[in-house]
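hey can u check if this looks right to u? its 142 residues, i copy pasted from the old doc so theres a chance i mangled smth
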Amino acid sequence: MDAVFELAQIKAVATALWKEGKAKKIWTFNAAMGTGKTSFIHALCEVLGVTDTVTSPSYAIINEYNSPEAGTIYHMDWYRLKDEEEAIQAGIEDALSSGNLCLIEWPEKAAGLLPEAIFQVHLEILDEKSRRLYTGENQLIL
């Protein structure tokens, strides 16, 4: 998938992305700070029927949501992780091996813990109101 969209279209793009990637259980969101990773995950969770409050797990590292469409969803933000050992202590390996949908921001912080079968989502800022989203097996964007 490769889409350029206005922020007002984020939910429609999230719907299309779910159709493309729902077979994969581990999704990585690769983007620079301020691109809208959490906002996109929020829109995706709305599409999946999550009624819990979707917030950035920057300090908690892992938030858990329930979805009638996808079951348990783990939303992870690895930005503050120092290394893979800290990630393991935070329970990330358990979440990754749970078989539940895992949505990961800043995956490069503990890339060694990721399995090979991941769905990579890349976001880029085009201007204040528009983004480019593409998927694929490209290298993680730092």
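Residues 138-142 have pLDDT under 50 and may be disordered.
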